Amino acid sequence: MKKKKRTFCPYCGKHITRNSEEGIVRDFCEACNLFFYENPLPVVSAIVVSDRKLLLVKRGKRPYKGRWCLPTGFAESGESIEEAALRELREETGIEGKIQNLIDVESCTSYFYGDLLFIAFEVEQTGGICLPGSDTVAVRYFPIEAIPRLAFPSNEHAVQTYIRTKAESWAIMDSFAGAIAEDQYGKKGNLLSDRLVEVIEKNVEAIAWNWVRDAQTNVSTSAYHKIEEKKLFNNVYGILSKFCRWLRGHDGDVNNFYIKLGSDSRKKGFSLSETLSALSLVRRHIWDFALSRGLWQKTVDIYMVVELETRIILFFDKAAFHTTRGYERVSR
Q: Which of 114, 146, 166 represents a domain boundary (last residue)?
């Protein structure tokens, strides 16, 4: 049913005509000398998410009867737009809530209602029990990745806007959970810094040559100054390869690798301090290379770099410990 046009003046009952005011043609009552203004109707929606599941209601009335949508309705006179959103949420779902953020504002034209102004809020549940209201026949939480097609395009737009605002924080939370699983249970997690690991893997040779040039000039690694470049490169390339494999969850023989590195260094006459300093330089060049990627634009980028730093520290602390063990075994 199309929205009906105004025919009679509500004040005097005379027929409405059309007249121009400031270049806009409006309904006009000649008897009352009065213009009538058609303003968009404010419509509020509540986005309630729990464990990345979105609360939706199934409509029990026209338009779009039987379709899923956000808890949505018209704001009433005498209430704030925030009060309207919470009232509609309560009436349609039985849930009490608290406004968290304004998510989206969008204008659209409805065949049924005319011009509408949709306003969507993120709402936190504070109480109540999920039960359908007078205008709804079902209330249900849907996983974010399995949301059905919604009745109103404005709802679709608001939900996608909400998901974009949460994408970074969700990615960080997932990565943090993966890091805990990897640390406590030995399970390979999906970490944000894996993207940086891919960059490091593709540039192992460049990092290795940077280390070679540093090791041959650094005062803390004087024993390496006279060693052939290619030999140094092969040694550090092996260390970097072990590091990348460890980051990918392939622990393998990392412990024995560094025990042997320590014992070989001792047999070759390198001091323990020079050996550990050489390892420290490898760590520094990995870190410097990661920073050179310029990933400091967004919060998620900063988290990714910090996460990688933590993983670098964990690996090279382990490497230094087992290298020292191998060095000490030979000296006994």
A: 166
Grouping H, G, I as helix, E, B as strand and the rest as coil, residue 26 is strand
In a shared domain, residues 205 and 137? no
Q: For the stretch 105-142, what's the b/e string if a residue is b when 16 or more beta carbons lie within 10 angstroms of its beta carbon?
A: ebeeebeeeeebbbbbbbbebeeeeeebbeebeebeee
Mean pLDDT (whole number) for 201-217: 93
Residue 83 lies in a domain: yes
129-133, 175-179, 327-331 — which is least confidently predicted?
175-179
Domain count within the chain? 3
Task: Please tell me the predicted confidence (pLDDT) of residue 82.
Answer: 97
**pTM metric for this prediction:** 0.62
Q: Is residue 185 part of a domain?
A: no
What's the pLDDT score for residue 183? Answer: 47
Strands (DSSP E) found in 30-161: 34-36, 41-47, 49-50, 53-59, 68-69, 72-74, 95-110, 114-128, 136-143
* Cβ–Cβ under 8 Å, residues 133 and 91: yes
- Could you tell me the CATH number of the domain that includes residue 124? 3.90.79.10
